[in-house]
Amino acid sequence: MKNRFLNLWAFTALIGVFALTTSCSDDDNTSGGTTEPPITEGRYITVAGAVMGTTDPTPGDGNGGTIVYAISKENAKDPSKTFDVFENGFAVPSNRTARLQSSQDGSTLFNIAYTGTNGGEFSKYKVNGGQNFTPTGGVVNISQYAGTSPRWVKLYDGDKTGAAVNVTSPTVVTNADGSYKHTRGTATVLSLDLVNSLIAQTKSYEIALSAAEEAQGHHIFRLDAPVLNKAANKLIIGTWMRKTNPATGTNESTYTHLGAKSVVVDYPSLENPVVITSTVGFGDTSGYRSFNSFVGDDGNIYQATQRDASGSHILRINSSNQYDNSYVFNLDTALGLSGTYIENWKYAGNGKAVVAYTHNGSAVSNLSGQSQSFLALVDLTAKTAKTLDLPYSADMYFFQYQGYVVDGFDVYVTAAPVGQDGRIYIINSATGVVTTGAKLTNKPGNHFIGAF
């Protein structure tokens, strides 16, 4: 009996210690009242670099293909380590800069080749470290639906699905009397089964604006950066708008933009396209080569604008899949600058995000002809932004950047001037503190385009 009581006491004490340890662990996973995003132990940080083209090359054009190299998280954080991605990495199949995505845990890399004979070809790889990327699953070509230069992203649904979008070249349509009617292209929306490497669903349709807007010549030039809403029943797709001159039938280079627009389709059927319009932002919502919309912890979708006359905005789309025009976040105001332009960005949890931007007055690189880029930590709730402390250069730009890794409070980003060596930097999304990680060796004309 005595031994039973002793064992019971020991067991109870052990439970108490375990509970205390667990409690301390929970405390360690918070910072300033925020909850730390998930951490993946033992993951790789895959660094991607874009090679300068060989035909009429311009430094930083990225037209010579894409090289990737996987670095352990521990080594990525170590400033004493050096990695030569371009010399030792794996060439991802793509004629120009590949369009890359990765699984949440970094163990799988997804690629769709961009242009060329294999343009539109989807493939995936197991990430094994260094240049060791093992093909897995089948290969499927989506070019017959989405073209050889498809815009696509991975949906945040447990790495199950990708979504590709495309619009054929918009054409002018006239009335029977020869007067201008509208300009439209045929849109295609495609869902891609990432697990089984096959096309799950595809729909094509013309997407009309209002009669008044179309009569003025406004039309959708490009679709890009789809995002799945929190309810997983709607896909919200960004747009890049253009305008035809009704009198001449040619595109107008300067005009007054409409309110920022997105296309909402049912999911997973991809049917019933509806256009929604913001009265806050007046730019495009398509982004460029990366995600441009994210579902926040509050369930709202946050979406950046580009080519916005009053500077880039971050817009909010609510659970009813409509723009919340009561939410006003102008990056010009937040940073005290003018003409800000969000090149790409990444939601990091707790209402925080890392934003790559340029602005009026940014230095223009004599090497690449691109405007200098900067990184800022943004608080979507407080509507504030602060430029992060990095070794900036007139030759550093993030316009073609594609990937950031969020692992707990750590946001991994690669940064280097075009053709110069750089570093992996780790940004603490809770504090904004930037620490220096491994060195990345570069080559003339090349630049780094992401961490995955």
Entry keywords:
single chain, 452 residues, mainly beta, five-stranded mixed beta sheet, 6 helices, globular, disordered N terminus, DUF4374 domain-containing protein, signal
SSE map:
Layout: H1 2-28, E1 30-31, E2 34-35, E3 44-50, E4 66-72, H2 73-76, E5 82-83, H3 85-88, E6 90-92, E7 99-102, E8 108-112, E9 121-127, E10 133-135, E11 140-141, H4 143-146, E12 151-154, E13 161-167, E14 171-174, E15 180-184, E16 186-193, E17 198-206, H5 211-215, E18 218-228, E19 234-243, E20 261-266, E21 274-277, E22 293-295, E23 301-304, E24 314-317, H6 331-335, E25 341-349, E26 352-358, E27 374-379, E28 384-387, E29 405-407, E30 410-415, E31 422-428, E32 434-440, E33 447-451
Parallel strand pairs: 5-32
Antiparallel strand pairs: 1-2, 3-4, 3-33, 4-6, 7-8, 8-9, 9-10, 9-11, 12-13, 13-16, 14-15, 16-17, 18-19, 19-20, 20-21, 22-23, 23-24, 25-26, 26-27, 27-28, 29-30, 30-31, 31-32
